[in-house]
Amino acid sequence: MTAQSHATPARAARLTGLGSWLPPRQVDNSDLASRLDTTDEWIRTRIGIAGRHLADPAVATSDMAVEAALRAMKSAGVEHVDAVILATATPDHHVPGTAPLVAHRLGLRQVPAFDVGASCSGFVYATAVAAGLIHAGTAGTALVIGAEKMSAIIDPADRSTAPIFGDGAGAVVLTAGHADEPGALGPVAWGSDGEHADAIYIPGGGSRHPSPSTGDHRNRFVHMRGNEVLRHAVRRISYVAQQAAAAAGWQVQDVDRLIVHQANARISAAVATALGISPERVPSNIAHLGNTSAASIPLLLSHSAIDRELRASQRVLLASFGAGFTWAATTLVWPSGLQALT
Ligand code: COA
Fold it and tell me: How many CB atoms lie within 10 A of CB 131?
């Protein structure tokens, strides 16, 4: 008699809740062009952005994170999670982390809560950490949030950054399940290269230069060598996407939907071409949101689910790139019955 294998599939993190929130104030390119040396046409053609949502001064990252988290938890039908991980480059304060504050406001008393700082890759990094906790049995459920108030760290007078970034938040609930179930996250591929740490950075306000405005008041804002970032982004996203697809046992060109970090429409198009994925399989919301850093991927997941761009059984590949440089990608088969709330 031939022995048959009935091994139980590995424990894995499944996507069971999805939510997002955008500040209501919309700023279009003509608003920027009225005070900066730029044009609506330049921003549309070079970046693919027509407008962005910006938070009012009194709104902090935690406020947006709470709104997205409430929607994700309602979407999952849960009132409790075992851990809260917040990906952000714009915490409310240097100390403490913003995640404990968010957990408290959600009524999640005493759950572990911490921030992940990996810039625009932060959401996929945080998802990988949460999936690891679930895989290890340390947590049964996790809330992963990407939230950013980029307008707090962007110089409104800098035409090389002000048109690019926007504010917002997105969140997911991950729940323990099995690796062969729809919604289960596949292996993560990720990496970093600190040689390029100053390609996108804020010079002041950290331990290197504690005074935010040492030498120049603009040192509290993001400085960026955009063209260098663009070239690395295309190369790294294409590479890490291929790695994640291969780790899942997929051919990358067979992916049904590529959810790529919304940094520049030209970056997304170049990555899709490099991977052999046709443009209609690459949803986008950059035109109306800009680059929302760590919030970009959960916001795009949420909007794509609502638009029915994401449907049950599709093979979905998430891929991101950000300051550091950092990059990360993972996969999932889209689950049925998941209702995104926004
Ligand atoms: N309006 C008009 N002209 C602008 C401009 C603006 N808002 N910003 C820059 N320019 C000018 C530059 O001064 C330069 O002029 P010059 O040729 O006279 O020197 C020209 O446009 C080209 O600049 P360059 O930086 O080479 O353009 P680019 O094609 O690389 O596009 C970015 C600039 C910033 C849009 C692009 O590099 C980009 O999107 N980079 C990635 C940024 C990013 O994603 N950051 C976050 C990472 S997650």
Answer: 23
**Residues 317/258, Cβ–Cβ less than 8 Å:** yes
Catalytic residue among 29, 264, 285, 291: 291
Tens digits of residue pLDDT in 230-261: 999 999 999 999 999 999 999 999 999 999 99
Residue 324's nearest CA partner among 221, 205, 195 is 195
Chain segment 96-121, per-residue pLDDT in tens: 999 999 999 999 989 999 999 999 99
Which atom, in ligand 1's list, is nearest to the CA of 263?
44
Please tell me the pTM assigned to this model.
0.96
Answer yes or no: 291 catalytic: yes
pLDDT of residue 216: 80
Q: Find the 159 Cα to ligand 1 centroid distance in Å.
A: 9
CATH code for the domain in which residue 93 is found: 3.40.47.10
Say yes or no: 97 and 208 in one domain.
no
With a 6 A CB cut-off, is 38 part of the ligand 1 pocket?
Answer: yes
Domain shared by 142 and 264, yes or no? no
The residue whose CB lies within 8 Å of the most ligand 1 atoms, and thus the one to mutate among 158, 227, 234, is: 227
In angstroms, how far is CA 9 from the centroid of its own chain?
Answer: 28
